[in-house]
Amino acid sequence: MTKLFNPLIPGFNPDPSVVEVGGVYYLVTSTFEYVPGIPVYRSADFETWELIGHVGVTTDDLGVAEVPTGLGVWAPTIRYRDGRFHVIVTIPFSTKRCVVFTATDPAGVWDEGTTIDGVAGIDPDLAWDEDGNAYVTFSGLILEGDELGTHKGIQQVRVDLEAGTALETPRSLWSGTGLMFPEAPHVFSRNGCWYLMIAEGGTERGHCVSVARGPSIEGPFESAPGNPVLSARSTTRPIQNTGHGDLVSLPDGDDALVLLGMRPLGSTRQFSPLGRETFATRVRWVDGWPRPEPVVLDPRPGEFEEVFSFTGDVLADLGWITPRSAPDQVARVADGRLVIRGVDGGMAALRPAFVGRRQRHHVSATCVTVDATSGAGGLALRYDEELFIALEARGSTVTATAEVSSLRQQWTATLPPGEISLRIETAPPPNGFSAEARGGDRIRLLASAGGQELVLAELDGRHWSAESAGGSFTGRVTGMFASEGTVSFGSFSYRGSETM
Question: Model's pTM, two decimal places?
């Protein structure tokens, strides 16, 4: 039987969509303002997943150079037809808007994409009927013009994919049970019926999956009895916010949903440091209706570690991401070191000189060695440009900064001369009902040089969690940055696990 690890894809990996082609699975997730965008994960057994590429590898590919925080690349859907992979996605506030990218190899190279005019909304799904007609089904949230903020429910339109045009006026479909924000539609055919699966209730604690079925891809659709068919709301389940599901058949023959969820920590279970992650759960069929099982927490055992010394083309590693710029636009490798030239504003800049990786575990340690004799920079944990933690070296002085929506606190220490090691450690809060247990995870900021190590600060991580970040929709990304002059790094390491 196929083992469902949960999280399936840990760390900032929301809004998953999956397709199976020839016994191999391909999964994509949202990336918002980060570049490269839309990661493509591959698995032959649904248990071990590998990041094999990205749909958009440059800022121009995605049009995200100026997108506001929380916008950018929203909710891709991946599908396969006639020898080509298709990824359809909305990129609000870019010229791409609703765009379909295609490739014969999902590892890339993907084409530049075709914008589909006439789709005014988010979370597009792509499906074909029995006659080969292409349909885009989407959530009708209006993001511009006089109707800004209006939600028209789930919409559908037949399209010409090659011309990039709608062939009719969008029609309204079934839009759920009346909960807020009907979104994330996926339509699929099974056993002579067409099914429309959506998310509703918002992507917070009320998030859920609801289903309807009908005789054709256009409906009409009737609601499943007992909708929503999946939700963690008002439960003590360790995985909350479950929704945005996509159906797939497992190698063992069972069906499953891949979906997003969050893992809140602490005795009050309010704060989720890693943001929205990808999970999976089995689906039973009862009287012709899909009935997903509750999502069960089952993380991969053991410790994960990756270590980078900066030789060769280390930036070609697919795990590096940068806000609104490609990693190789802000960093380069020279003489065995990673070199970053600072930008005004440091981590508060819209496009910081920052190259990072997703935090994937609740217990983690990220460490860099840095030479800041010609500038200022170091190691940072980022949610967005208003929510970050930075360990900044300037010569032999290290300043720790905790930034929360323009509120800033700093701690400064001076170390012996020489190369400085900076480390950010995270761990879940203690058990019980103390003030610490009611908060977020614990974050320690450390610096060392010349045999001397200092703890600059210990922080409550609730301020750098998905709930505090609100509309950023991403997760923690930890990496190297420069705020002034030129800073070079000798190494980067990440160690993580789910146990202390």
Answer: 0.97
